[in-house]
Amino acid sequence: MTRRSLFSCLFALVATILVTHNALADTNRFAVVTLLNQTPDVIVNFQYHWGDGQWANFQNFGPGARHWFSIPLDQNGQAPIFEIRINEAVGAAQPINKTYQLQWNAAPDKGIQFGHKHVIRRDQNDSDYIDVYNLGA
């Protein structure tokens, strides 16, 4: 093998490795949801779960707080539904419990920046209640 053909083969091998590495780095592995508390003054407690999993408690989600939730994608790139259950009432308002299905983003890694964004805000029509809004990607 000549030096030139050896360098050509070596270059092709390195290029193949780099392309494969970049493709793997972009592979979506997780379903990610991001939740933001955009109320100025409400500490929110809620429950959440993926699919048929057990409900877990999330306590003291204060004003300005941000959190992400994730689960590995299955071999088909799918994940179960993510739900939160929340009492929408603020203070002494009559309790109203509601369950929301929150969309997720398929992402290469876990983290707040990868999640499909949802916010908790005071209800636009009645400030005695909060609501969950989908902000999208």
Q: What's the level 1 CATH class?
A: Mainly Beta
Instruction: Figure out the total of helices.
Output: 1
Structural class designation = alpha+beta
For the largest beta-sheet, the strand count, sense and barrel status come to: 5 strands, mixed
**What's the number of domains?**
1
Output the CATH homologous superfamily: Domain of unknown function DUF5300
Strand content: 35-45%
CATH architecture annotation name: Sandwich
Taking pLDDT < 50 over at least 5 consecutive residues as the criterion, the unreliable ranges are: 13-24
CATH topology: Immunoglobulin-like
- Overall body shape: elongated
Mean pLDDT reading = 88
Q: What is the topology?
A:
Elements: H1 3-25, E1 30-37, E2 44-50, E3 56-61, E4 66-72, E5 82-87, E6 97-102, E7 105-107, E8 116-122, E9 130-136
Parallel strand pairs: 1-8
Antiparallel strand pairs: 1-4, 1-7, 2-3, 2-5, 5-6, 8-9
